User: Which sequence fits this backbone?
């Protein structure tokens, strides 16, 4: 091989090398921008194969399958019935009729109804029905199980329900991994008085410096 | 009398010289010998039950000459946490389970905080203090909650020391902690490489390699790091026994510490203590690489912002509104 051919070879290889170098340096700059966490997150579309799901057992609390799905499919909610003091209702509400106006004076005297303000304030019959006290009833006379009260709450609080299904309202029970189990509406909100009471904070902070 | 070849001093020296050695293993050898010597001395003075003094001295020497956590093999990590467990049972009569769980594959932790839901009950703070065995004497807290005037967003303008009935009408509440930046300035400031970002996105500190210079604290634009001026004082019955080497284990005096997204919990699939304690559901935690996770839903459907995003720290902690 003489000097000329070497020169020829070099000249032939020079342009692609330069181009490649230019491209790669550009790619390097771009990837510096793309390595931001948002780009990484956006690029990730395939479902997450949770390695912990097999190790994590069920949560300790009693749960039921939700009747609606979220973006990841079916999920569970905390059951409600076992937390209701006098459930099942049929233990009192049998064949003998019970008058609604007596309810506040008698067994349900502990209920403080503070749900909705002014003319939008709710009364018992907005959610309960005397014919079937063991079930809830929405505006369209649809009967709803106490464990699935989110179906009832969602008829007015539809924005909150949408966020709750997706995960921006409420929260999961104890784990981020494994089967999705979330708190139900009534786990955190007293359905008769849903707003959180004003109270003192659990602690206080001291200045940092 | 002629010595046996094995006991021949010349042969012994030859053996030592031929054995591959470096500074660390030499020091280790010397240190174990010294520990045995000093322990033998103290054992003569203080009557000790079944040689636990010797064992403690040996464990402490081995701990002193261990590597940086990032350079350890999984086996060495196991060994050091076993040593720390044994030392805790000798020194404090505490039965601990210290873990060294590695990061999970395809997991990047992210956090979101709902400023329209938080009502300032501070239950996250007490849960964090309890879970992470924070010093009760100096009242160390990783989380700060601020009472904010409407129209303000920088927590520096808020009241961080409120103590009255909450929520107050026409105010809102916001919280800060370590934001686990992807481009974390604190890790670059550390002169001993004692702090770094794990592959699952958690910024951690190796408490045994931290020299307490506090450069990282100066580098952090979010006041996310805390320095301990003394050994943390925690009542014995309140110590959280489930610990992690990079998390809530007993920190020596004069080290930097911070929120670790409760690494001892989250690497096992549990939620951080603050998320579990929050009574209003303002705190969302999850895997950013899982398209179906709650945190991804928040990022996709809510108005989100990050604090001081213009600094380019790329924090994995978003604020959002309903």
Assistant:
């Amino acid at each position: 091989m003489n000097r000329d051919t070497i020169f020829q070879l070099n000249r032939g290889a020079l342009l692609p090398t330069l181009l490649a170098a230019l491209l790669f340096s550009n790619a390097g700059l771009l990837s510096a921008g793309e390595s931001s966490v948002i780009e990484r997150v956006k690029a990730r579309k395939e479902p997450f194969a949770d390695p912990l799901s097999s190790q994590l057992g069920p949560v300790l609390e009693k749960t039921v399958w939700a009747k609606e799905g979220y973006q990841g499919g079916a999920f569970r909610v905390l059951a409600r019935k076992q937390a209701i003091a006098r459930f099942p209702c049929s233990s009192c509400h049998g064949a003998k009729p019970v008058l609604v106006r007596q309810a506040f004076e008698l067994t349900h005297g502990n209920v403080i109804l503070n749900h909705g303000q002014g003319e939008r304030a709710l009364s018992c019959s907005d959610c309960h029905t005397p014919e079937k006290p063991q079930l809830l009833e929405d505006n369209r006379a649809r009967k709803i199980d106490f464990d699935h009260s989110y179906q009832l709450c969602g008829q007015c609080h539809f924005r909150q329900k949408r966020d709750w299904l997706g995960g921006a309202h409420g929260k999961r029970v104890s784990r981020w991994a494994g089967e999705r189990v979330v708190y139900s509406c009534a786990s955190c909100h007293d359905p008769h008085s849903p707003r959180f009471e004003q109270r003192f904070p659990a602690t206080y902070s001291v200045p940092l410096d | 009398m002629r010595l046996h070849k094995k006991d021949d001093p010349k042969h012994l020296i030859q053996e030592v010289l031929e054995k591959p050695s470096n500074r660390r293993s030499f020091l280790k050898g010397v240190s174990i010998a010294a520990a045995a010597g000093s322990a033998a001395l103290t054992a003569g003075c203080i009557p000790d039950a079944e040689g636990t003094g010797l064992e403690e001295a040996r464990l402490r020497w081995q701990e002193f000459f261990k590597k940086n956590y990032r350079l350890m093999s999984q086996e060495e990590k196991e060994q050091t946490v076993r040593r720390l467990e044994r030392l805790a049972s000798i020194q404090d009569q505490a039965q601990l389970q210290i873990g060294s769980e590695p990061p999970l594959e395809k997991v990047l932790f992210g956090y979101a905080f709902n400023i329209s839901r938080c009502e300032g009950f501070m239950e996250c703070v007490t849960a964090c203090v309890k879970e992470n065995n924070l010093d009760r004497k100096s009242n160390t807290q990783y989380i700060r909650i601020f009472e904010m005037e409407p129209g303000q967003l920088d927590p520096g303008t808020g009241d961080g020391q409120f103590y009255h009935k909450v929520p107050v009408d026409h105010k809102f509440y916001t919280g800060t902690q370590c934001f686990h930046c992807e481009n974390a300035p604190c890790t670059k400031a550390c002169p001993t490489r004692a702090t770094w970002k794990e592959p699952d996105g958690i910024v951690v500190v190796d408490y045994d390699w931290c020299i307490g210079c506090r450069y990282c604290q100066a580098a952090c634009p979010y006041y996310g790091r805390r320095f301990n001026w003394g050994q943390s004082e925690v009542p014995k019955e309140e110590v959280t026994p489930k610990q992690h080497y990079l998390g809530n284990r007993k920190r020596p005096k004069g080290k930097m510490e911070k929120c670790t997204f409760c690494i001892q919990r989250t690497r096992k699939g549990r939620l951080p203590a603050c998320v579990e304690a929050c009574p209003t559901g303002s705190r969302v935690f999850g895997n950013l690489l899982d398209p179906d996770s709650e945190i991804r839903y928040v990022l996709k459907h809510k108005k989100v912002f990050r604090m001081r995003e213009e600094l380019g720290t790329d924090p994995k902690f978003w604020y959002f509104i309903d």
Remarks:
- Chain A touches chain B through 48 residues (CB under 8 Å).
- Residues 5-9, 18-34 of chain A have pLDDT under 50 and may be disordered.
